[in-house]
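At this stage, I put together a protein sequence along with its fold in token form, as given directly below:
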Amino acid sequence: MSAILGRINFSGAPVDRVLFQNSMNRIKSYGGDGSDKVLDGNVALGSEYSAFSRLAQQRTGLGRSRDSIIVADAILDNRAELLEALSIGREKGRYFSDGDIILHAFLKWDMDCLFRLVGDFSFAIWNAQSRKVILVRDHIGSRPLYWRLSGQTLLFGSDIQSLVEMKDLAWQIDPSAVGDFIRHPMDPMDRGFFCGLEICQPGSLVSISEAGATRRRWWHPKAANPVVFKNDDDYIEQLFELLERAVRSSVDTELPVGSHISGGIDSTVVTSMAHRSLRERNVGLKKTYCWSPEVSSKHPDLGPRDERTRICALAMQEGFEVDWLGTSVDALMELASRPIELEGTADLAAELSLLRHAENDGVRVLLSGWGGDEGFSARGHHLPAEMLRKGKLIKLARLARKASRSSGRKGQLLFLWHEAIQPFMPVWSPLAPHRKYARLNAGQFLKKELGYSSKPECTKLRLPASARDYLTTLILHGHLSARMDTWAKWASNHRIVYRYPLTSRPLVEYTSQMPTRLFMLDGHPRFPARSVAARLGLGPTSKYDIVNEQCRSSARRQFLEQYVKNAVVDSLTSYIDWENLSDSQCLPETEDVADIGRHSYELLAATRAARALASSYNST
């Protein structure tokens, strides 16, 4: 976990050293292994560095050449390959930080260097001769990067709070940004909650000079090289090799490693591969963490399909320890009280408790299977719809028979409805999939004089009836980086860095170009991922986490009940329309998990938005 910070006064005015140091103090929790900064008149650049690689001895995120300076929050997974391409010997390369390597690559290949970088990164390069800054973020957005151009003053950095510490600039909450969040609380934000605060988007770069800013995308999944093999086994073999390389790189560190674990195929494969890789160095995972509660009289075992049963069997087979967590009402109350304008919009409250457990266990690197649905373990969504659209009715009928082989004619009809017909339904239709979550109404809980919409709004996400375009749309949607941004902020307080092996660029590019038929080969959803799991000897996986959902639903219900008692909104009476709220509006009439989830999501979003509006920034 590292962080960067920068300020450029294009007017030529010197940067206030005290002000910049105050901002640097805000990112100290990201570092621990090195702190470095450059203060040169109108230019101030800083880095708090946390070591990850076993191969680097340089402890800084700041690098220099004759005319250029780089500040980088980066973990390169292909250091050796880059050093060789740059003609830098291995021994000399040990004294090159990842930022140094990126700068040398940039000086040699210019922007083409980005396609040679494999890993997680966000960085800025300042060129004194051209008086221009280039901000770059990796393809998926695993490391956060924000910026603001206010007149002739540029601020950028990994942490919003460090930017807001530049108190010589006005910082106010942008009501229109809050409105966007209220209307679409499940969609990622494309800007910050503060006026003028921008988010450097995944796979994009921003070039900034005194003339202004230009933005462009440097990476797109459709631009990846086509993948062609003679037989299906070769596709699976290549997938296995790329995944193994990504997981090995994610644990190539001396730091203690932990991992998320569930009964799902993504975390199961990542955790098992990581543990085996570490065992080769006689280490192993420090611990694994599951959001589900432990089996008990309160949460009894539901049988062989219960994900906890599968997790326990896997833990015994592989030899790692599991920490069971569950979601509590306290976690939801804590989430409701945290500053969304500083931390982002992710809302998985259980992760707050997980991070505290991981820190107490001494974990410094935390693996996540996040991003698998967008590539590695894609289940073939919209492949049947694509067959229907293209008129491949015979192939579609065969696929329906194979996918429903154990459930007869009724199963085939249900398959055709859900997989081939429903994807064509517009998101506002009552027949659209995930209808209850597609239309949320957080604005109904805010006072009308604030001017926010109180009508249910559809999600902005539109998923085309094409298997490949479906994956591309998900990758570019931004929900992956939105969670990564928030988790990076949360983790900084615990000196933990996340790694996401399933979002490795070579792996994402490969899966985006694989034949889409493989994702549902012979009617088996997630066929490539299941083939990898079978090769690892992991047996069947199960995301049957009904106990976890019941635990979450219970916590959400308690949250709603406390909300009704005014325990959450005591300081938000100027924003929450408490007088016109009834118990029936806050509490669903049924115990349906989806209804409770939707109500709690709406109220949580309204509360977090209200706290942003009520923040002290609007009074300064």
The mean pLDDT is 90. The first strand starts at residue 3 and ends at 9. Residues 593-613 form the longest helix (21 residues). The chain has 23 helices and 19 strands.
